[in-house]
Amino acid sequence: MRPEYWGEEAILKATRHKDRKLLKNFKMFLCPYSMEGFYGMTYDPQNLKEQVEFADDGTTENKVNVIRVIADYLRRFHHHSIKYILAEEMDEIYSFFNRTELLEKYKIRYVITVPAMWNSLARDSMVQAAIEATMIKENEVNQLLIISEPEAAALYCEKKFTEHLNSLEGNINDTNFIVCDAGSRTVDLVTFNLQVNEKKESMICQIGDGVGDTCGSTYLDPDFMPNLQGDTYYDIDLPGKGIINFTGDSTYRMANGNKTLRMKNQDMKEIIFDPIVNRIFALIDDQIKQASKMDSKIDAILMVGGFSQSRYLQKRIKDQYKGVCHVSVPFEGVTAISHGAVSYALNPRMISKKSAGQSLGLEVQAPFYKELTDSAEKKVIGPNGVAFERGRLDYFVEKNQQLEGDRRTVYMKDVFVQYPSAAIIAIFSCDSRTGANDRYVTDNHAKIMETKIIMPSVNKRDGDLVKFKVSLQIEHIGVSVTIECQDPHINEEVRKITKNQRSSLKIKPKYSLNVASSKQSLASYSNTGYLFSITETS
Q1: Domain boundaries, position 292
Q2: pTM beyond cutoff 0.70
Q3: Which of 102-107's residues contact partners 24+ apart within 8 Å by CB, and which partners?
Q4: How many domains does the chain have?
Q5: What is the overall mean pLDDT for the chain?
Q6: What is the pLDDT of residues 98-121, one digit of tens each?
Q7: How far is CA 75 from CA 55, 178, 190, in A?
Q8: Cis previous bond, 420, omega within 30
């Protein structure tokens, strides 16, 4: 089933036609596990449907594929965007017939912001939706960048920091600030450290883990500012015909023919707003405690997102943390994430972290040991009868591992390949809260790189081991990998073939952690083992 209407039109149609199914909050299905682990919601599919009002009665004609639904929205957005950009901004005559030609002339790159707690699998699902929406081609995934919402907000705040924190004394080097992204449904917080060198060049580093809760403004009035002077009331317009046969209550009053609920401002504050605000306080306190454990002090809280414009929320946070840290609401706080995302697209760079936010591991062919019971189902037999483990990982960096302060740190592994087989190098990442450092490739691991190196014909015996060195470096934009053969005979042959233009069999692919990689493997496992006998996939 594909959506027929979107936005206000969809709500209107669903109201008028009871046989219509209304889909809401379906984006949550891309990362249901984060709903439980991060926001405290269940990831059971049936319960999640009820929590997010996902309409699906189980019949074939009404089955909903969430990626397809999101792709439908992105397709409409994509068509509208390119039509506006090409026709209005570039002054081109845009039509169906010259659309392809114009898209070749003007390369459009998208950057999508996602919730802080989305893992790599959820991000990859969003990329698949973008491919299905024809925003990008499957072989051009580098045209799509993905950045978390707090990171985008932090990049915006980095640019505007002096303006937002002009009340702070001294220079802003080594400043710790919390980005409080208060949205319609969720509130996400991440703490960052700002470093500014003598050349006025800045660098942002995330400290600690982000936190979040489902305490957004969906059911609150952002303009609410209680008047606690005297016996004042707050009016709430009720849907439909209002309340029938209302008998009266000391807390609530009815007006406008029982269509308006009048609630005391004090009760509105204590029953409706304060429980939400207190949950946000708990998130901020968590970030302050995390910083304290690292002997760091929070200097500022920057409020972004739609809910951050609530005058009542601003006042409560400023009052709560008066004397603790500065609280600032940037002028463009609602669009801070969008501004930061554009900044990221124009100058792609990664926000560094003091600890690894994900594991990065090399898939290796390790000897099989029957003493390790968890490896029994991974057993494969090579052509020489030797047993090996399949899907074994050897990590460059493990999740939560403390990282070196210098980004130029290079992590290295040695790989041995039997001549003349091709060298298949595959690197996986995982940012799952559980199992990120498992010994084997799991469903939570995402392949960020796979490359195949063909060895030239040299005077070697079949089965001789050829050594390759794999070096990995975490950079601003992603991961830089260098794979270089260490065998002198093969490297000598490479020099001959290239007429000394290359000194060794060496490749240096670069891969962004914020874009998807190909789902199709260059090699697959077979009963004869991996790397010993490679079964090519078409």
Answers
A1: 150-212+278-345
A2: no
A3: 107/143
A4: 3
A5: 76
A6: 777 777 777 788 899 888 777 777
A7: 22, 35, 31
A8: yes
